[in-house]
Every structure is written in C-alpha cells, then in structure tokens.
Design goal:
Blueprint (H helix, E strand, L loop, with lengths): L9 H21 L5 H12 L5 H7 L4 H13 L3 E5 L7 E5 L1 H22 L4 H14 L3
Antiparallel strand pairs: 1-2
Helix pairs in contact: 1-5, 2-5
C-alpha cells in the first residue's frame, strides 16, 4: 500500500473507508437493480411510515431535492406509494408497496452479507467499538 500524507488524518481515513464501503455496497445492490439511496429510503420507510420528508432526507443521508427525485422514481417503479395522512390532510405519507417491501428484503440480505464480509476483518468487540466511536462523530 502506498503511503500518503493523509494516512494519519481522521477525516481522510473516514472518507477513504466511506468511499470503499459505498462503492462495494453500490456494486452489490446494482445486481438487485436498486441504488444505495433507494435502499436507505426503503429501510427508513419500513421502520417508520410517518416520517416527514425532512426527517427522511436527514436519516437517509440525502438532500431534499435528491430525495424528491428518488421518491418520484420509486413511485414510478412501484416500490413506494404516497398516501394523504389521516391526521393532517396537508401531509403525505410514503409507504412501501408489497413489491417495495419484497425488493427491500432482498436488498437487505445483500447489505447484511456485505456487512458480514466487512466485519470479517475485525472481531465483535472491535465492531462494537467502531460503531460506538463513529456514532459519537455523527450528530443526532
């Protein structure tokens, strides 16, 4: 491995790890015909169908315009549908369709397999420590 002037800079090492993980997850999800952003949206919707678009954008790591475009595409693909909220007619809830839930479960298996491959490089205690440390760096 080539030494770089960034090897001891946390921001660089995190960015490099993110890039590697993102690229490898993207490659696996491509086999399922799903973008990584769509997977994050589907996981969020399965966990909570009462999210605002702002909350969904924040948790799915997308900016609002990108989220809107992704949701439009997912609606067109039959993965998600919009429903007017019961409590407040001005709000729209996003719900996974049966097809969306089925696809999300297959995609989840791919992501879990990827995580198992990744975790194979560290032991369970290191994994817990790494997750805890990274959570300390992320707000909310």
């Amino acid at each position: 491995m080539i030494e770089t002037p960034f090897d001891n800079q946390l921001s660089y090492v995190l960015a490099a790890a993110h890039r590697m993980v993102s690229q490898s997850v993207t490659k696996r999800l491509k086999n399922q015909g799903i973008q990584i952003e769509a997977w994050r949206i589907m996981e969020c919707l399965e966990a909570n169908d009462q999210m605002t678009m702002g909350d969904l954008a924040r948790i799915a790591l997308l900016n609002p315009p990108t989220l809107s475009k992704m949701v439009d595409r997912m609606v067109s693909d039959g993965l998600v549908h919009r429903q007017i909220a019961q409590r407040d007619q001005r709000q729209v809830n996003l719900l996974l369709t049966d097809l969306g839930r089925s696809r999300m479960l297959k995609v989840r298996q791919e992501v879990e397999a990827h995580d198992r491959d990744l975790i194979g490089h560290i032991d369970a205690d290191e994994r817990r420590q790494l997750i805890a440390l990274l959570k300390q760096l992320t707000p909310g």
